[in-house]
From TrEMBL:
PANTHER family: T7-LIKE MITOCHONDRIAL DNA HELICASE (PTHR12873), TWINKLE MTDNA HELICASE (PTHR12873:SF0). GO terms for molecular function: 5'-3' DNA helicase activity; ATP binding; single-stranded DNA binding. This is SF4 helicase domain-containing protein. Signal peptide: none annotated. Residues 136-247 form the SF4 helicase domain. GO terms for biological process: mitochondrial DNA replication.
Length: 247
């Protein structure tokens, strides 16, 4: 069937027998190839001939050996572009399906994806793992400028992680978290505060004082200067406060 391939063909059905390829082409008109050694092996020398296809359906036979071969061949051809026709009474090999008057087009349409969207192998992760090893410092996250001990413990602030700070009332949680967030915010980390206990005016006052590193109550003439600089930080506040409806 190789001589019937066109350069613009993007979909293909692989079979294990010449008569199966003929039956498929006759019944559906799709491009069909018969593997030269059936289900025994897929020689690497054939792989370049199959590179142009975006979707490959493997319909090799109706026994367990054919099913196992189809899964093995799909891994060689790239699971993401392969689909498999599972052997069964209503899905025999193509020639038998044609003889029984079955709808071969429907069987092809119902073929199972070779890859599961929620499962991947190390081969698919390999390059990303190498990237993490090469860029260890970047993967560690944004480091705190004011908390070297925290950097040693947590390595940095990373996207997608949740850190919980606990402690009794008055132990300094809010004061510390304000400084913690301000440190990152000054390095360009977009920060959103959801403070349900302390109102936003008081919280902003605490953070502005920490930002200026001085008591602005005693130097009100400096307020506008520090407020302008503070305003430029990527810092935002939710308007929720106190008890809220769950919805």
């Amino acid at each position: 069937g190789l001589h019937l391939l066109g350069r613009r063909d993007t979909e293909l059905v692989l079979t294990g027998w010449e008569l199966d390829a003929l039956a498929l082409h006759q019944a559906t008109g799709v491009v069909s190839l018969a593997l030269p050694r059936g289900t025994t092996c897929l020689p690497p020398v054939l792989l370049p001939y199959l590179e142009q296809f975006k979707r490959i359906t493997l319909w090799l036979g109706e026994d367990l050996r054919s099913w196992e071969a189809a899964k093995l061949f799909a891994r060689k051809l790239n699971l993401k572009r392969c689909s498999l026709v599972r052997p069964g009474n209503l899905q025999p090999r193509p020639l038998e399906a044609l003889n029984q008057g079955l709808n071969l087009t429907k069987i092809l349409r119902d073929a199972l994806p070779a890859s599961h969207k929620s499962i991947i192998s190390f081969r698919q992760l390999r390059e990303e793992v190498f990237g993490e090893l090469v860029n260890t410092e970047q993967v560690a996250g944004v480091k705190w400028a004011r908390f070297p001990d925290l950097n040693r413990l947590l390595k940095g602030h990373r996207r997608g992680e949740l850190t919980v700070f606990t402690g009794p009332t008055g132990s300094g949680k809010t004061t510390f978290i304000s400084e913690y967030a301000l440190d990152l915010c000054m390095q360009g980390v977009c920060t959103l505060w959801g403070s349900f206990e302390i109102n936003n005016v008081r919280l902003a006052k605490i953070m502005l004082t920490q930002f200026a590193a001085q008591r602005l109550e005693d130097q009100l003439e400096l307020y506008d200067e520090w407020a302008d600089r503070f305003e430029d930080l990527p810092l935002y506040f939710m308007t929720f406060h106190g008890q809220q409806n769950i919805k």
